[in-house]
Specification:
Length: 378
Amino acid sequence: MNLFTKTAPWVVASLIAATSAFGQNKSPPPAQKTFEPGHELMSNQFMAAYNAPARIDVRGAWDFYAFGAFTYWQARQENMELAFVRDTTSTADFEGDFVNLDFDYKPGFKVGIGMNFDHDNWDTSLIYTWFRSKNTQHTSVDGLSSEIFPLIGHPEVTDHSTYTSAKEAWHLHMDLLDLELARSHYSGMSLTFRPFFGARAAWIRQREHAIYATPIAGVLENEEIVPDTTVNVVQKSYSWAVGPRAGLYSNWMLGQGFRLYGNGAGDILYTRYSELSERAEEVTAGVPGATDHPRQKNNDYLRTHLELELGIAWASYFDNNNWHVDLAAGYTFQTFFNQNMFRHYVRNSGFGNAEAYSTCPNGDLFIHGLTATLRFDF
């Protein structure tokens, strides 16, 4: 027992010294290969149990990025029909066709700026979207085999005559401002995600102008038929909105800098319609007739919006990773739910009855088209 007590300290000291020597002689693990963030990875470049950052990371000290996009979108909105053209030769009481608004593609743009944070590789961006659209439609009939029934304006103004021509113009002005806070990360060797949340502010202004007319047969002025009765209807819908927004950007790497991408987002906005108004006036043989001017102010609602963009892109680092360029082209789909607040009127017993009550059908606003984007990281 005494021998063990005397030798035990020496045994323990020897074990500690051997362990220390072994630790000092052990060579360090090989360093991981470097890679270009935001592009495809190799299997030996992964870090276990951690979503490796995938944001674009240039060597410059600014750590900013800026982008601009050209948009070529078509705006379409429900419940924008101009008129119903009735076939008067038909044996049916009401047989004919509705005249729909002709929707065209219009150019616009998006611009944005972003910044990368040191905190866990987060980034933030501010994006502004500008879009303007004007769409028109026109129709005319002979007044013998067919006639036009207006679908815009109160029947007390529009039902005093039979019309042979109608035209409509719809103006849409849209401005969007988005703030995003996000983090890009790898989810596989060739797939990256960028979930984000933030806020959106929106300004959407709409104006609809419709004209219905019927001529005096055989009376010409400057080789044009002089209108006997004309009705002008102007409706306005002006709104601003603000609320939370969230979504996900995804990149599917194809190699050599090419990738497919899919981006989705949604928001729910507190929306105030600062002006909802209608003004209609009938003029017969130059003499003012029936008029109406109903209006509302400061109506508050919650409105939702969904968007999706799919496309292909190419990106690369340049000048020894001092800057990075990204080119993308995709197709955008957007839905603004219940955005149409123009007044429509429902007659109690078919067309031609002046007794009617007003209703808001709350049609959806749809936007779709090409989006081409150029981005620089510096």
